[in-house]
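On clarity, I found the account of how folds are encoded harder to follow than it need be. For illustration, here is how one protein appears when written out as sequence plus structure tokens:

:::
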Amino acid sequence: MTPSSSDIGSRRLDLAGTRDFAVAGAGPARREALATFNRQWLAEVWRTAIGGVRPEGVALAAVGSLGRADAGPLSDYDLVLLHSDRSLPTKEITALAERIWYPIWDAGVRLDHSVRTVTQCRQVAAEDLTAAVGLLDLAPIAGDAELVAAARSTVAHDWRGNARKRLPQLVEALSSRHARQGDLAQSIEPELKEAHGGLRDMTVLRALAEAWLADRPHGGVDAAHALLLDVRDAVHVVTGRGRDRLGREDHDAVAALLGHPDGDELLTAVSGAGRTIAYALDGTVRRAGQSQRARTLRVGPRRPQMTPLGHGLFSSDGEVVLGTPRLAESDEGMAMRAGVVAARAGLPISPTTLENLAAGARPIPTPWPEPFRDLLGDLLASGPGLVTVWEGLDQVGLVEQWLPEWTAVRSRPQRSAVHRHTVDRHLVETVVRAAGLVRRTSRPDLLLASALLHDIGKVRGSHDHSVTGADIARTVVARWGFPDRDVDTLTTLVREHLTLIELATRRDHQDPATVDAAVEAVGGNREVFEILLALTEADASAAGPMAWTDWRATLLEQLAVAVRARLDAPRPAARPVAGAATESTWAAPTLDPAIVESVRAGQPVVTVVSGGGSHRLDIVDQDRVGLFADTAGLLAAEGHTVRTAILRTVDGVAIDEWHVESPSGAVPDPERIVRGLARLARGDRGPLQTLDRRRAHLPRPSATSGIGSPGQARALVVPGASAEATVLEVRAQDRPGLLHELGAALAGAGVSVRSAHIATYAGQTLDTFYLTGADGMPLPPAKVAQAVSIVIDTCDGVNPS
């Protein structure tokens, strides 16, 4: 009886489960056993289907992972029933196919199938690029093996003969697929098959070699391929499904199965494998293009076209090459010099040249002589071309020679929603962004070095990467030969690289305590502050669009203005005695008497200043309980997202500054806001009806804990953040109108919101509120506890009693 029962998938999983995934070499042995099982079962299906008759000129063949014998436990079957033109009548071929396909379907195996002659295989391969690449792996399962060999050799012959035409198509298809699926090495949930650096790219590498256009790399590439196959197999076992995506929820289980300490170590290995394959593919595609151009242009012997770039380096066929390999040994700085030349030219360094540079590299004396440090600075300042060049230098181990600490962050994942790259790639991207900001500071070398090292502390076991990174950076830059003063500055820059953006987005820049914190971070040094400011922008913009927006840039600039004013101010003759009362430097703004008269007559004044995608609203109105809540609700009802609110009161007049973004692109209408505020002041809630309707259809927030849930909202008091208000940080699930609800709940308890700083990432709020009592002073302890309780209950959707 044909073993086609519905538990074939379970049997394949059982077979995979009998092999220890964490044992070295277990993967190939496991896949070999699976391949043997698949072929034996399909051969039995074949024997049952033919019923003891041996038809001539008919064969069952496999393509894809089944044909390559590297299928996973639950991989699809991709089968071709081959027949010659003179084998069996069409009806009998169709009947035979059904007798093969149905038992496979009944067994619960996903099947891609076709029935073709050798001629039809050639036709399909000529018309469909994907089919052509797949048919290069055609392998016999049962029946006439010579027919399968004929089909495969014919398709391969056509592939080589049409390489000139097919290569541009292949390159275009690669670009399109990679654009859709992304870069495997930079993904938290990598697509193991289709992404750039995935398993399908290994198939393309073999296809390019089959076309005789370029040989493909081996060694490290084959090891990377085996690792991705092991991960794919583990995903099948863990999920019980034939998936190719390593989902976030499966990280820990797959890591445990493969013997990794945790999901981050697994992702680091996967990212490294994807980078190796992607780099090999990109280089092989360039080799293939060079070979194709050589075939096209050859009229007799072809001499390579060499364009001199200086320092014994040349541009040739879209790559940078050494004029002679001896230069790699005779010039100690040639590796860095080649990197500078290549990055400035926007060209990759050829693999052969990289190998020669790595082989000829010698240890740099410690501390580094100044010429080497200058070369490193030139390399870091080379611009966008650095990304590709640095990857090549890293692939051959040169980066590790210059910076041994790089290995700890190489390919290390970042789970923060704001980051789009691994730690090492983010560092390089930050350097590129910083290179565009060097004119803002008198020490571009310190800016670029700090950009390269600012996240070097994101290593396994680190609790505060800024502190850890500062210690590592001190060791590194001392080795690089920076003077002691510069070592101290670079250490400060790495330790404080998050300080300014956190102060700008979570604190009130007009509060003296906020400015004090920024000044203290840079030791009162204006030059260090300007470097840190540029580093902050480079870091945030390199992280991704969620980390660098118009409103964040605006807040950072506002903080910068306040800090510069403090740093440039004349120093007092004597410092005040600790603990003595000091006059607040928080100057009250002055108002035009006409504006004050309008406001006292019940007519608010609203001014809108737009810049990019953000808008600043200056709102002057009569101060009253609930004004903050009403304004927040009105802006939410109008479709605007509040980013910052700074509130002041002078002689009963509220002078409020709001920064908003408009997802729809609409510019706030000051007249509509004036009318809305006036109606709300009279007790008319009509302007908030749109918000109320939207809120009525939202699911209630959940404070439950567990996988996938952020848990209960948090409200934390920040001691010492301000001498003139109680500062409360709020972390909760965002929803439309939340700011309005918080303002209303606090107003109901007699708590005033003096200013608010709003940020939202991945659906979570990161808000900071400056709160005062009715007397305008910080809240007493009992009131603080009440405010915390109110905020948590409101965020979690609980009606405070």
User: Anything to note?
Assistant: The first strand starts at residue 58 and ends at 62.
